[in-house]
């Protein structure tokens, strides 16, 4: 059992007698085939225990990527203890405040935190792994097509009950994957959104970075700017792009940026629908409508608009 594995590993790390009370508090975060618990015991600072399964290949990457990012001086939780045989790692507790939890605050008050997040990802993009470091396969046409298939299967077919066959056969999706997959120069987080950006001491820290790989930096930036959890206004999206331009001295080319946003939002829609229908987690359902509206906005006037029209119509019909 994951809880037993974390408890046993925590006791080993703490070196405490079996009779010493150790409290485990569940932390619900994402759907990556992991169990995450806060570990508390008298006389020791709380820390986080993570148990992973083989459900996702990237879960095995958490430990080596965590060490690499810390070496590169990015703000990530320190790894305190490893027990790979039991699929457990113990890490620094950064608290429970993420960017999503601050959504009710005025956007202007959150801008310094977004600057902090973008400064971190800018450092990430140009970090240099050791030659012998094994990364997840890079974003290429095949991976982008996999994300599209995820969208077709779980959002279009399972959630909306539509026939996704015409979408699979439509060349505009394959063409999009081919264009985006031609370049994968930078390291990317792959899930750079508000739930994975914790706030501590006025700075943003990165978590859930196990999917690190090479890809397009525009994909990560689009993930933050078009984050369905936050549902930024057009003015807020422009402000975030302005921050990124100040930090990086460049601005994403609009067409490429919107294509990366389209790709990311299709992936998110597939994930939300999968979690709702396969895992019964209704928290994600309202975000389907938000992500659908954002996807419609970035595909208006593009080659994706016509083939996705019936998807948007069906989403409108089922949205609250």
Note down, in words, how this protein is organized.
The protein has 320 residues and is α+β, with helices and mostly antiparallel strands. 48% of the residues lie in helices and 14% in strands. The protein has eleven helices and nine strands. A five-stranded antiparallel sheet has the order 1-2-3-5-4, sandwiched between helices. It has a two-stranded antiparallel ribbon with strand order 6-9. Strand 2 and strand 3 form a beta hairpin. Helix 4 crosses helix 6 and helix 9 packs antiparallel against helix 10 (285-299). The model has no long low-confidence stretch (mean pLDDT 95).
Percentage of residues in strands: 5-15%
User: What's the tally of helices?
Assistant: 11
CATH architecture name of the largest domain: Alpha-Beta Complex
By secondary-structure content and strand pairing, the structural class works out as: alpha+beta
Largest sheet: 5 strands, antiparallel
Roughly what is the average pLDDT, rounded to an integer?
A: 95
Assign the CATH topology of the largest domain.
Aminoglycoside 3'-phosphotransferase, Chain: A, domain 2
Oligomer: single chain
Q: Biggest sheet: strands side by side, in what order?
A: 1-2-3-5-4
Keywords:
single chain, 320 residues, alpha+beta, Phosphorylase Kinase, domain 1, Aminoglycoside 3'-phosphotransferase, Chain: A, domain 2, 2 domains, five-stranded antiparallel beta sheet, two-stranded antiparallel ribbon, 48% helix, globular
């Amino acid at each position: 059992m994951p809880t037993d594995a974390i408890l046993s590993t925590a006791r080993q790390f703490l070196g405490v007698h079996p009779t010493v009370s150790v409290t485990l508090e569940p932390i619900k975060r994402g759907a990556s085939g992991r169990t995450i618990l806060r570990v508390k015991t008298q006389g020791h600072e709380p820390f986080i225990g993570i148990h992973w399964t083989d459900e996702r290949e990237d879960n095995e990457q958490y430990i080596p990527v965590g060490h690499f990012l810390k070496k590169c001086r990015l703000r990530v939780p320190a790894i305190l203890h490893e027990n790979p045989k039991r699929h457990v790692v113990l890490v620094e507790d950064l608290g429970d405040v993420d960017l999503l939890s601050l959504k009710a605050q005025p956007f202007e008050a959150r801008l310094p935190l977004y600057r902090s997040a973008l400064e971190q990802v800018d450092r990430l993009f140009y970090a240099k792994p050791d030659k012998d470091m094994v990364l997840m396969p890079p974003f290429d046409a095949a991976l982008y097509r996999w994300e599209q298939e995820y969208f077709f299967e779980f959002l279009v077919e399972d959630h909306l009950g539509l026939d996704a066959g015409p979408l699979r056969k439509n060349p505009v999706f394959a063409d999009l994957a081919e264009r985006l997959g031609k370049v994968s120069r930078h390291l990317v987080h792959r899930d750079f959104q508000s739930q994975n950006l914790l706030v501590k001491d006025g700075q943003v820290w990165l978590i859930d970075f196990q999917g690190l790989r090479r890809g397009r930096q525009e994909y990560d930036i689009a993930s933050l700017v078009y984050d369905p959890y936050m549902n930024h206004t057009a003015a807020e999206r422009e402000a975030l792009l302005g921050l990124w331009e100040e930090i990086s001295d460049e601005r994403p080319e609009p067409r490429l940026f919107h294509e990366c946003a389209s790709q990311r939002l299709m992936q998110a829609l597939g994930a939300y629908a999968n979690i709702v229908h396969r895992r019964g987690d209704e928290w994600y359902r309202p975000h389907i409508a938000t992500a659908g509206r954002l996807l419609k906005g970035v595909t208006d006037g593009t080659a994706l608009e016509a083939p996705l029209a019936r998807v948007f119509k069906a989403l409108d019909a089922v949205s609250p």
